[in-house]
Amino acid sequence: MALGDCWKSLSWFYYQYILVTALYMLEPWERTVFNSLLISVAGMAVYTGYVFMPQHIMAILHYFEVVQ
Amino acid sequence: MTESSANKLLNGDACHRTSNGKRSSKNGFVKNHCVFQQPQKYRRPREKNQNVTRNSSLYKKPFSESFEETPLLVAVLTYMGYGILTVFGYLRDFLRYWSIEKCNVAQEKEEQKDFVPLYQDFENFYTRNLYMRIRDNWNRPICSVPGAKMDLVERASHDYNWTFEDTGRVVKDVINMGSYNYLGFAENTGACTDAAIEVTTKYGPGVGSTRCEMGNLDIHEELEQLVTRFLGVESSLAFGMGFATNSMNIPALTGKGCLILSDELNHASLVLGARLSGSPIRVFKHNNMISLEKLLRDAISHGQPRTHRPWKKILIVVEGIYSMEGSIVRLPEVIALKKRYKAYLYLDEAHSIGALGPNGKGVVDYFGLDPKDVDIMMGTFTKSFGAAGGYIGGKKELIDYLRRHSHSALYATSMSPPVIQQIITSMKIIMGEDGTTLGADRLRQLSENTTYFRRRLCEMGFIIYGNDDSPVVPLMLYMPAKIGAFGREMLKRNIGTVVVGFPATPIIESRARFCLSAAHTREMLDTALDAANEVGDLLQLKYSRREQPRPSLGWMSEENLFD
Q1: What pTM was estimated for this model as a whole?
Q2: How far is CA B47 from CA B71, B460, B467, B560, in A?
Q3: B314 near B299, Cβ under 8 Å?
């Protein structure tokens, strides 16, 4: 079933992420701390992009004189 | 020694000293007479090995080593992993300091806190924060003979490896890929054990004295004569401990006015012995004959550091097989250099005796050289003979001198009789003197196992270091989490491996080290290889970027075509 395969594949990717960032060696609470920091930083980046992207795009188009 | 004779190179050419005392290696004259010329060509950057065979006429058979370079992405990710671990290490140390978390390391008492600290916090940072987390991969208790298969005591830890408890269960028939059991003599049945039991009933296990006082038994003499015959030297001396052989005998051989040239990756016992001797030590790049020659030439042309007197003697210290790299020393070239520059050679055959060579007589036998060319042949009985101890072989005058002046010969307790008998029996088996072909069979089995195992691992795509003929197979892991993961996953599949990290290896080059044995059958190797394949896929360890299959053409490989 597709959901089971999807879960297995996600679980494999999570395992690779844990190995590469050496979180495999850390205790569960340390992993939580690191993951929450990472997600909050990524979330803030996405939110900033969402808020400022229209302004940036208008500025670029204005510079290239596509729009007044 | 007058100034003018010190300026002459030993081959009779005069060395002109420049007027402002600059190093004569900048003088074009000195370079032209090097035995091994630096070639002027572009080298492919993929292989880290800059030590390609230049003087191919000295080698009777192809010498193929490979040390594939670390892929850049893997190196960056490894550093990142260590960075994250370091940050969390600081965090945990902070919590321990402010007593938010229980501290399990040694600490001083409250009353002593105002004095000079006894325990420096930072020194053990690595041990506390990185090693402890994956400590269950090391010091695993073995409860059977560490032969081709062994039984392990199962341990569990409830506080993340600070303390262990036995669960009461035993993991049975774990394939042993970690013991230095090259010829399979680590067994509790057979001719060696029966002879050892007989000798124990005759002499008892303890000796109760040093060799020079009352501890010299007749089997000690028998052992030394046997070792002399085995190696093809004039005389030999046996010690109770291999580490002590190196660290206690090098101080007896060199002193203040002598120079020691030691390989970059020499074992801790050789480094300790060299430091204890008090001689200046100069290090040459691993297995790099150009570096060694340059050091020799500089040493002879400049002499001692401030007085410029000639050195009393120059001792080159190398090992037969380097166990962390799996590389074999370039002995023909080292002997050519030694003869030309009149230096002495100390060869530590800890891993290569019994394991290399058509007759099992070590790296000298492997290259087909004369044992009389090596001044001091040292080795251990721990690896291929299934016992414990070390020996030194050489000229009669040297061994007589060592008997009187070596710390180990004078103060250390003599070897225990059953251990000696194990060595005697196993050595006779290897030489074929017991009447069976067991020795020859085992030697052949070991070299077949080595070739098969290395070829299969390289085909799978792992990065394997070292020479194609060495029974020590390091498999590169690089990332710190994979060190722990590899050890544990292999144990789950019933294979016991040794994983090594910093400080035994450079920080990013952590590895798993397989030690092959003549006791491993083809089925055991296949099981181990399948497990390694599975774990390699699971942990994504197949970093090798070589074209498959790797050409094993030795002489005809691309580097040599340019010569």
Answers
A1: 0.83
A2: 11, 19, 14, 14
A3: yes
The stretch B529-545 carries a mean pLDDT of 93
User: Beta-carbon neighbour count of residue B435 at 10 Å?
Assistant: 8
Buried b (16+ CB within 10 A) or exposed e, B529-555: bebbbebbeebebebbeeeeeeeeeee
Q: Which of B517, B222, B464 is nearest to B351 (CA)?
A: B517
Q: Is the dihedral of CA A28, A29, A30, A34 positive or negative?
A: positive
By Cβ distance, the residue of A22, A30, A34 closest to B481 is A22
CA distance A26 to chain B (A): 7
pLDDT confidence of residue B51: 59
- Beta-ladder partners of A59: none
CA distances from B217 to B195, B273, B382, B420 (A): 16, 28, 21, 10
Residue B61 has pLDDT above 90, yes or no: no
Residue B62, class by beta-carbon neighbours within 10 Å (0-12 exposed, 13-18 middle, 19+ buried)?
Answer: middle
SS3 labels along B323-363:
CCCCEECCHHHHHHHHHHHCCEEEEECCCCCCCCCCCCCCH
CB contact under 8 A, B481 and A24: yes
- CB atoms B81 and A21 under 8 Å: yes
Query: Do strands B376-380 and B235-239 pair parallel, antiparallel, or not at all (unpaired)?
Result: unpaired
B77:A20 CB<8 A: yes
Find the radius of gyration of the CA atoms of chain B: 25
Dmax over CA atoms of chain B, in Å, equals 77
Task: Give the Cα separation of B200 and B204 in Å (integer).
Answer: 5
Q: Give B-chain residues touching A18 at CB under 8 angstroms.
A: 481
pLDDT of residue B29: 39
Distance between B318 CA and the closest CA of chain A, angstroms: 36
Q: What is the mean pLDDT of chain B?
A: 86
Is B481's CB within 8 Å of A30's CB?
no
3-state secondary structure B80-106: HHHHHHHHHHHHHHHHHHCCCCCCCCC
